[in-house]
Amino acid sequence: AKMAAEASDLLTGWCLFGLALLAILIFCWVYVRKYQSRRESEVVSTITAIFALAVALITSALLPVDIFLVSYMKNQNGTFKVWADANVSRQIEDTVLYGYYTLYSIILFCVFLWIPFVYFYYEEKEEDDGNTCSQVKTALKYTLAFITICAVLLLIGAFVPLDIPNKKNSTEWEKVKLLFEEFGSSHGLTALSFSISSLTVIGMLAAITYTAYGMSALPLNLIKGTTSASYERLENTEDIEEVEQHLQRIKSKCRDGRPLSSRDRRTLQQLEERLRTLRRRERHLESIEKSWWTKFCEAIRPLKIVWGVFFIIVALLFTVSLFLSNLDKALHSAGFDSGFIILGTNLTNPLNMLLPVLQRVFPLDYILITTIVMYFIFTSMAGIRNMGIWFFWTRLYKIRRGKTRPQALLFLCMILLLIVLHTSYMIYSLAPQYVMYGSQKYLVQVRCIFLLFPFNLDQCIVTRTYLFLHKFWFFSAAYYFGNWAFIAVFLIGLIVSCCKGKKSVIEGEVDDDDSDMSDDELSVYYH
Question: Where are the domains of the chain?
């Protein structure tokens, strides 16, 4: 009966993982199709975006599986289960490790080869319509730079030793031989870990920019809601009348045949563009006001407020936990040279207290970890959607429903891939013991008494995630300082979001540079 119960729990875990994979694929297809432009959509870019987004979400889902498998090898009394001998444990560890190998290799392939090639191909297609061979050659030329960067990172990670023995009488050949021996003993893990850690630092910068802002903007937007479509139509009609009157006053100056001054001509052109934009807004607002989706959103407005309050509480919980975890590292770690790594926990944070309580009821702790990971992903999406895609102070693309260009979707998916890599370290910062050991316990005999402790470095199995996270101390130090920056940006974003008023019901949907043909793209969502 006990073996049957264990098999049932294991089967339940894998079934949940399978359902999560199916849900991820469906969500990626719906999300990409929702935001991509109907006029500029391409099959290859659409498939690339869906695949990259799915890889990002599947990689994030591997962390709860890793924690579940190392926890499942032990009983609640701290002893290993009958089937979990050394060989079986090693097989499970290797299976998870190969899963990380595969997904991280796919991420490297997407970031350094596939996404750049598709992006540059469509950039060239816009400039040179017709010659496909020329477009492919140009795209490959630019992609070669990304491949070179990837090769350099792999070589650095493969052949730069972490610990160099201090032997004064060693020859240069012995040092080179040591490099190859270390590369062979690590089976490429160090090279892959260095490359992934380098991308994780970039993902950390993206998380500081987009995720931190999304964690504050998403809940407050749900709480505050949007302005009424009918009220905006009334204001828009008044603006149209005002612009038309201004136009009439300028045009009246040339009724007697006199030419307009250069200043009046510029003003006339600006007013005509303004009038076209206002009329497009009028058409969109009219469509929204009559749509069934608007009526449905108004009906569930109380539910949105509840979700907004819940999300802001979760965001504050994460921020407090991250602050206490970083403060613990600042006070009790060995400092910068060790990457601010600590094996124990001296300052308990709320999340680290909650997870051991949920461990008593399977699978509540894994559901919470999965929810946290998904929360980071969705707040990142919200941050990118609200801010757009920026390169320093220049906005490259906007993410708009039904009007997002293929290149913008590719950028979006690449940013999410990088943020997902940093998510694992964020979760580790929030609950370090749980991410390292899960719910494992171990027994210690003191005289004739057995005492049960939460974890032990020698008697418990470490998750494969931890091995990837802390291979290089200088990356851990960068993550530590990145956490402080994340907290600061979140607080700034919270203040800014609180001071801002309600969003327009069509915010970001109508811009001055839109064409009249783009109005038809949103009709799918409003009728």
Answer: 36-224+303-499, 232-287
